[in-house]
Amino acid sequence: MHPLPPRTFTDSRLDAMQFEADPLADATVAKIFGPWASAAEGATEQQWQRIAAVNECFAQWTDNASLQAWAPDTIAGDADLAMALRQYVRLAQVLPGWAEPLKIERAERVFMEHGALSCILLFCASLPECYVLPDLSAVLHAAGQLEAHTEYRIRSTAAMIFPVMMQGGLTRPEGAGLAQILKVRLIHATIRHLILRGTPQDKVREWRAGGALPSTGLVAALPLPAHRKPTMYEVLQARGWDLSADALPCNQEELAYTLLTFHYVFLRGLRRLGIGLSAADEEAYLHAWNVVGHVLGIQPELMAHSMEQAETLFDQMQMRGRADPVTPDPRPSLGAALMNTMAQSLPWQVIRPWPVLLTRFLCGRTTARDLQLQAHASWLSRFGFWTVMGLARIIDTVVRCVSPQFSITRSITRVLGYHFMSRVLLSQTRPLQLPDALLNQVDGVVHSWSDDPHAPGWLNQLEDRLTTDGTWSHGLGKRTAAQASRQTP
């Protein structure tokens, strides 16, 4: 049985979803923090210590099997805290009754078959579209100071996507997708709790009982430490928040929109590159990520089960977001930081504008304008990009008359994506924040993407030369001796 199909919501209905959060995760985080002595002064040292203790627990959630057996007696010497976290893990890891394992397996194959292209679409389409909603961008900016730590944000995103989409990530004990999702869900709740300095449900209740908010907002800003660089948590609790103007941070509408960027925008990108999937494959991919959305605490009525439903909901949410600007606008700086990170991973100056050009192609003019991606590219860069894209589309159209699975477009973007992953995602000096055994699996999977199973031998040989040449390679799929010594048997 599937969840209720989405419909075109009225603005009042979506407005209400902006004041809905995640009761299970929020209640768990409330137990972690305990009562706030004074919201006007911020968290106490004891509260920071309890957060640190829970972060240490995350390291024990290495795979899905570890969740089933995880039952600490105390955390930071607190039996009640341990009980609350145990209950969260027990309830949150359960897949919905409408989950279909065969569709999830099919979605895993789709992601893996497209290899490095999957990552290019995520970072040249999904993440840019994620930045379009001003309120969501403001939270992302505060949560990660993204302009300064863009690579960290990219690697954090990949640290969830890879375990989820690898074989058995959602359905097998040896998979690790559920373990990573449960961490992300608690992080979302922690962001809400720190920004509001209390539980979202309590703050909404106080606001509605008290009537109009003062001009300073429901939660006043706090000064940041002057003698040292503040932590991410300190930045979040100090930023201030106006519930009447901005609704809840990380609310249900924003979470549902983010989910759309991971499945709908990915599939839309394949279509725009001329590598569209069958309707059954698209439905399976949407389904798998809807299962992810359920585990993340997203309400089922906000999930799309077809590309048509997804397009309608996505366009409506974007239109609403654009109608509610934030000052100062955080989106251009986030977009510039992401594009610069992509560009710096490419070895030749002439193709460094290509991530911007590809993002503009995949996301469209309106999103490019939101993120101010109209930066000038040399005529040679633009000529090269559009010539390659045009010739690839022509060649694909002709050759597919004989070989339906052929795609030189996929091969070109695979080369760029393969190099990007080696530079940013799988750097030996900055590995993904994953358990060693899982990181080794990710390395192996990405290394297997060096060949396209649907491409002819000569094209794979050309790709191999581009991705193994000293100029391009950064040791993808190979671990340092120090890392290898930490491999889990």
What's the short version?
The chain has 489 residues and is mainly alpha-helical.
Describe this structure in words.
With 489 residues, the chain is mainly α. 62% of the residues lie in helices and 0% in strands. Helix 6 (101-130) packs across helix 17 (354-363) and helix 7 (134-144) crosses helix 11. It is globular, with a radius of gyration of 23 Å. It has a domain at 101-169 and 238-489. It contains 23 helices and no strands.
Distance between the termini: 40 Å
Largest β-sheet summary: none
Overall pLDDT, averaged? 83
Helical content (DSSP H or I, runs of 4+): 55-70%
Q: Which secondary-structure class do the elements indicate? A: mainly alpha
| Beta-strand percentage range | under 5%
Poorly predicted segments: 469-489
Number of strands: 0
Shape: globular
Topology pattern, helix = H, strand = E: HHHHHHHHHHHHHHHHHHHHHHH
Helical element count?
23
Rg computed from alpha carbons, rounded to a whole number of angstroms: 23 Å
Organism: Acidovorax lacteus
Domain ER-bound oxygenase mpaB/mpaB'/Rubber oxygenase catalytic: 249-393
InterPro entries: Lcp-like, MPAB/Lcp_cat_dom
Protein name: ER-bound oxygenase mpaB/mpaB'/Rubber oxygenase catalytic domain-containing protein
